[in-house]
Amino acid sequence: MKNFLRRNPKFLRFWLAAWSSEFGDNIRNTALLFVILEQFADKAAAAISINLILEYAPIFLLGPIIGVFADRFDRKTSLSGALLFRAVVMLLFISAIATNSVLMIYIGSFLSAISTLVFRASQPAFTMSLVHSDDRLLAASYRQMSISFTNIIGPVVAIMLYGAIGSSFMIVIATVLFISAATTIIRIPNEQQNNELSPSINTNTLTFRSIWSDLKLGFQFALGHKIVKIVTLSNLAFGLVAGVYNVMQMFLITEYLGLPKESLSWFTPIIGVTMLIGSLLIPKIKCKPERLLTISVFLLACGLGGMTIFPSVIWVIAATVLFFTGIVAYNITTASLIQTHVEIDFQGRVSTFIQLAWMGPMLLMSLIVGQLYPAVSISYLFIGTGCIVFLLAITVAYRIAKLQVNPHPLSMEMEQNKLAQSL
Q: Which residues lie in coiled coils (predicted)?
C-alpha cells in the first residue's frame, strides 16, 4: 500500500479528495433522510421514494450528454467544478429546512445527482492520467476501499452528528467536505500528458451537430469494442442481482430468517467489512482482469442464489459474504478493464453507457420483484435470479474465452480505424 501511494503521489491527493467527498455524501444523505422524516412525516414514504427517483433520473435523462462533455473538457476542472457545484446546492437544502419545502429538497437532490454524474464520468480518465497503466487495478481497488469504508463508518458518524448538532449543521459540514475535496483536486499539479492520454477531440465546437456527432461516435465505439461489450453484458447481470437484493434485503432478514428488523444493525457492518477486506485482498490475486471478471459474475450468481437455500443465519451470512466479495471483485475489475482498454477520449461516454447498462435492469428488476413478492416466495426470487445470472456468467466466460483465443484483440488504434471506416 505504501509503495503504491509513494509511486503515485497525485493519486494519493485524489484519493483523499474522494474520501472527503464520500463522507460528505453520507452526511448529506442522512441529514436529508431525517429532515424528511421529521418535517414531512405525513408523506415521508412518498417523499423518500420521489427523492430516490430524482437521484437516478439524471443517469437516464442526461447520462450520455454528460459523457460527451466529460470527454470534451479538462477532467480536473470537471471534477472540482462538480464538487463546488454540489457545495452550492447545499444552500437549497438549508433553505428547505428553514422553509419546510419538500420541493427544494427534490430540486436539490436532482441537481446533486447531476453533479455526481459529472464527477463519475470524469473520474476514470482523470485516474488514468494519475497512475501508470500497470497500477490501474490497484487504483481501482483503493477507490473501492474508500467507498467500502465510508459505507461502514459514514452512516454511524452521520447519526452521531445528527444527535449532537442536528440536520442543518450536518449540511454545513457536508458543504465544507465538498469544498475541501474540490480544493485538494485543484491543487493536484498538471503534467504534460503522453500521446496515449492526450485528448484529441474538438472541445471548441459546442453546436448541437457536434455534440450529437460525439454522442453517436461514443455509442458506436461502445457497441463495437469487444471489452466494453463484455463489461456491458456483465453489467446486465450486476443490475439484475442488485435490483433483487436492494428490494429484498430487509425481507431476507425479517421474513426468511424470522429476525427482528433491528438485526440490520449488525448485518450491514458484516457487508461493509467484507467489502473492505475484499478491496484489500482482490488486487493481490494473480489473475488476469478478464478472468477475474468472469469469476466475479459467478460469485454474484452463487451468492444471491445461495442465500435462500437453507433458512440458517450462518448460511445466509456465508452466502452474503460470497455475494459482496463478487461485488467488490466486479467493481475493481470493470474499472480496471475500462481504464486499460478504452482510450481516454471515450472514457466519459463509455462510463455513462455502462452505467445505463446496469441501472436500467436494476430499476426494472426492483419493480418486478416489488410486484411479485409476496405472491412469489423469496426463495424462488433469489434462486431464480441467481440461475439467470449464472447463465449470463457462462456467456461472459464464453465471450472472454473467445476473445483470448484470438491473441490479437482489437487494439485502440484498430478500434478507431474501424469506427472511422463506419462513419
A: none
**Cα–Cα distance list, 302 to 151, 353, 365 (Å):** 24, 27, 18
DSSP 30-49: HHHHHHHHHHTGGGHHHHHH
In terms of Cβ atoms closer than 10 Å to its own Cβ (0-12, 13-18, 19+), residue 68 is buried
Separation of alpha carbons 325 and 328, rounded Å: 5
Q: Give me the pLDDT at residue 200, please.
A: 47
Tell me if 36 sits within 8 A of 44, measured CB to CB: yes
What residue type is assigned to position 290 of the chain? E
Q: Would you state the cell numbers that stand for residue 7, as one nine-digit string? A: 509511486
Gyration radius of the chain's alpha carbons:
22
What is the 3-state secondary structure of 57-95?
HHHHHHHHHHHHHHHHCCHHHHHHHHHHHHHHHHHHHHH
Please write the tens of the pLDDT for every residue from 47-80: 776 777 787 778 888 888 898 888 888 889 999 9
Q: What is the pLDDT of residues 381-398, one digit of tens each?
A: 999 999 999 999 999 999
Q: Which is nearest to 218 in space by CA: 354, 377, 18?
A: 354
The residue among 231 and 272 whose pLDDT is bigger is 231
| Number of neighbours of residue 163 by Cβ within 10 angstroms | 8
Q: With a cut of 60, say whether residue 274 has pLDDT above it.
A: yes
Count of CB atoms situated within 10 Å of the CB of 149: 18
Q: Compute CA 34 distance to the chain's CA centroid, rounded to the nearest angstrom.
A: 24
Q: Looking at residue 132, what is its pLDDT? A: 82
At 152, the amino acid letter reads I
What is d(CA 324, CA 272) in angstroms, rounded to the nearest whole number? Answer: 9
